[in-house]
Amino acid sequence: MRIHIVGASGAGKSTLARRLSSHFRCRHVELDAYRWRPLWQKTPDHHLQAVVRQLLRGDAWVIDGSYASVRAQIWGRADTLIWLDYPAPLVVCRLLHRGVRDIVQQTDLWGTGNREGWRWLLGKESLVLRSLRTWRDLRATLPALCAEGRHRHLRLVHLHSPRETDAWLAAVARAAYPVECAMQPIALSAALWGNGSG
Q1: Closest by alpha carbon to 193, among 161, 158, 168?
Q2: Using one digit for the tens of pLDDT, what is the confidence trace for 41-77?
Q3: Could you give the CA distance from residue 32 to residue 52 in angstroms, rounded to a whole number?
Q4: Quick one: which of 82, 102, 101, 103 has its CA closest to 13?
Q5: 31, 69, 127, 149: which sits with the fewest CB atoms below 10 Å from its CB?
């Protein structure tokens, strides 16, 4: 199985990816670890695309990250797309909680020496504002993208709340043949084409 998890920052993509990679005993790739260089310098898109090309080798991996510059590459190889489409207030609360914790603990992010700061979390170009833009953009574009012919091979798992995610994970854990049985679309017509609230 080749799984791509998308969602706004703070939704819990990496946490879910770690749980799935542990369950399926496959590689976990956190795109943020390759996007950000020391001193918060961004890896140029063309370099990130070259790195992702290497990371996509193999038939079992879980990748988390919502970067549009590598979406086509990942979706061309992925067989399952998981969209964490949680309510914006919940995402912001989670992001603030994580950010404050990382600031207080001075967490070294991805081994780069980068650390969260108050300006990074709450300034004019803050992580919160960027997360909200990603949340909005995914809701505006993802249904149409998934409907394109070149993406019809993707099995969509559209999750609207942490409770729904926990229930889905429990179903994955119970499945006798998890790769074949658990990775099926959840209420595809309602979840993908509905209003996305809940």
Answers
A1: 158
A2: 899 999 999 999 999 988 899 999 989 999 999 999 9
A3: 12
A4: 82
A5: 149
The tens digit of pLDDT for each residue in 73-109 reads 999 999 999 999 999 999 999 999 998 888 888 988 8
Half-sphere exposure in the Cβ direction for 134 (13 Å, CA): 22
The residue behind tokens 């918060």 is 40
Q: Look up tokens 């496959």; give the residue.
A: 26
Question: 52 near 2, Cβ under 8 Å?
Answer: no
Asked if 24 contacts 62 with a C-beta cutoff of 8 angstroms, the reply is: yes
Q: Which two tokens stand for residue 21?
A: 């990679």
Q: Would you state the structure tokens that stand for residue 85, as one six-digit string? A: 């489409």
Instruction: Find tokens 């549009």 and name the residue.
Output: 68
Q: Residue ranges per domain, the chain? A: 2-185
Q: Are 161 and 193 in contact (CB under 8 A)?
A: no
Entry pTM: 0.84
In this structure, are residues 52 and 34 in contact, taking their beta carbons and an 8 Å threshold? yes
Neighbouring-strand partners of residue 63: 4, 29
Fold of 2-185: Rossmann fold (3.40.50)
